[in-house]
Amino acid sequence: MLISRLMAISLAIGLLPESGQAACEARDFLALPLPLTSDRPALSEALEIAYPGVTVDDTAGTLTIDGTTLPLGADDDRSMHARIADASIRDQFAIVYPLEFDLTLRSTPWFDPGRVRNDAMFRALYGETERAVAASLVRSVYRGTSKNTSFAVTSAYCVAQQLQAALTEIAKDKREMDKYFASVGGSFNWRVIAGTQRLSAHSFGIAVDFNTSLGGYWRWAGATEGEVGGYENRYPESLVRNMERFGFIWGGKWHHFDGMHFEYRPELILYARQVKQAGSR
Question: Could you tell me if 267 and 43 are in contact, meaning their C-beta atoms sit under 8 angstroms apart?
Answer without folding.
Answer: yes
